[in-house]
Amino acid sequence: MTPDPANPLIPASNNRPGDDPIFTLHGMATRRAAAGEDILNATLGALVEDDGSLAVMPSVHEALRNTSLDRASAYAPISGPPEFLAAVERDVFHGHGLQSKCIAVATPGGSGAIYNAVTNFLEPGQKALTSSYYWAPYDILTGLSDRGICTFNMFGADGNLDLVSFEESLHALIAEQGRALVILNSPCHNPTGYSFNEDEWRAVCDIMAKAADEGPVTLLIDFAYAKYAPEGDADWRDHVARILPKVPTIVAWSASKAFAQYGARVGALIALHEDDTIRDRIANAMGFTCRGTWSNCNHHGMIAIGEVLRDDKLHAAWDKDRARLVELLDARVVEFNRLAAKHNLHYPRYEGGFFVAVFSDNPQVTIKHMQDAGVFIVPLQGAVRVGLCATPKSKIPRLVEALAAGIEAAKQIPAS
C-alpha cells in the first residue's frame, strides 16, 4: 500500500484509541456530575474516603514536604537511588532469604515495571501468559513492544483457580515459542479481587517448575495491591524460593496504591535469580531499558517513599495511615458481599482489594443500564468490574441495586 503523503503516521499507529477505555468512562461520569447529575463513579482504581474525597496518607505527604528542593530537583540515577531500591527490597521480602538473591530498578509505577519485564523476558512476536480476567493495559504494555498476551481460563467450575487450564496453556505456549513469561496478579487481583490461597500458590509454582524442563519459564508477580491483602494471606515467597533454581521470578512493585500516591509514578521491578552472574546481567538489561524509555524516574517521589520505608517514625505513621485505609476498604467489601448475596449476584471469591468482578451475560447491556441510573462501572469479557475503592460505604446499596438491575437486563439480551 502506498503511504498517504498527508498522513505521517505508520500504519500500526494510524487507528490508536485517543484514551484508555477506563479513563473514557471516568470522563463521561465526571462530565455528567459536573452538569449537576447525581453520579456514582466506580470506574477508577483510586481509593476515596467515605465523603468522596481522595484518600491520602499524611505520613507520605510529610516525607514529600521534608525533601530538600536541591535533592528533589536533581537527576536520579538511571536505575534508581540505591537507598530507595534497598528499601523497596526490604518492603517486599521483610528479611526473607530471597532478599539476598534480588536486584531492582526504579520504574514509573507498576506499568513501567511490567513494560520493562516484557521487553527483557520475551522476544518480539512472543506472548506473555496471564489469566483470562486481567488488567486491560497488559494488552497495551505488551503490544506496544511487539509482544502480546494469551490467557488461561481463570476459574474452574468450582469457582477456584483453574489449574488444569493453567498447566495446559503453559505447556502449549512453551511448545509454540520456546519460553514463557507468566504474569500473575495476586493478592487482590485486578479486576476480580481474587487472592490465591496457599494451595493455589503451591500448585501454580509446581506447575511452572515442571514446565521449566521444556524451556525458560519466568514468573512475573504484579504486586500492585498487595498491601490491601486479606488477613492471613498466603505467603508466596516460600513457594517462589522453592522453585527459584528453575523459575526466575520478577516482582512489579508500585507505590501508587500502597502509599496512595497515584500521581508520583513511583515503582520498581525486582528480579530474583540464584546465579550471581546472571543476576548482574538482568540488572544491566533492566537498567538499559530504563535509559531507553523513560530514562530517570521521579526523584522527589523516590526520595520521599524511600524515607517512609527507612525511617522508623515515618514507617510507623505510614503503617497507621495504611491500616485506616485498609479498614475503610474492608468495611465496603463486607457490605458489598452482604448485599450482593441478597441479590444472588455471582462473582469470584472476594475478601479484599480495590475491585470485584461480577459475572454478566452481556456486560455492555449491564453498564448501559447502570449508566442510565447514573452509576458507572467498567465492562469486561463476561463480567463487569466494580471499583469499591471509589465507592463510599453509604452508596454501596445504590451500587448493588443498580448492578442487580443491570445484570437482570443483560439476561434479556444475552451477548451474541
Characterization of this structure:
There is one protein chain. The chain is α/β, with parallel strands linked by helices and 416 residues long. It has two domains: 11-57 and 317-412, Aspartate Aminotransferase, domain 1, CATH 3.90.1150.10; 68-313, Type I PLP-dependent aspartate aminotransferase-like (Major domain) (Aspartate Aminotransferase, domain 2, 3-Layer(aba) Sandwich), CATH 3.40.640.10. Helix content is 45%, strand content 13%. It contains 15 helices and twelve strands. It has helices at residues 21-34, 58-65, 69-73, 82-93, 109-121, 137-143, 163-177, 198-211, 236-243, 255-258, 276-292, 299-310, 312-342, 363-372, 396-412; strands at 40-41, 102-107, 127-131, 148-152, 180-184, 217-222, 249-254, 267-272, 355-359, 375-376, 378-379, 383-387. A five-stranded mixed β-sheet has the order 2-8-7-6-5, sandwiched between helices. A three-stranded antiparallel β-sheet has the order 9-12-11, covered by helices on one side. It has a two-stranded parallel sheet with strand order 1-10. Helix 8 (198-211) runs parallel beside helix 9. The longest helix is centred in the last third of the chain and has 31 residues, at 312-342. The model has no long low-confidence stretch (mean pLDDT 95).
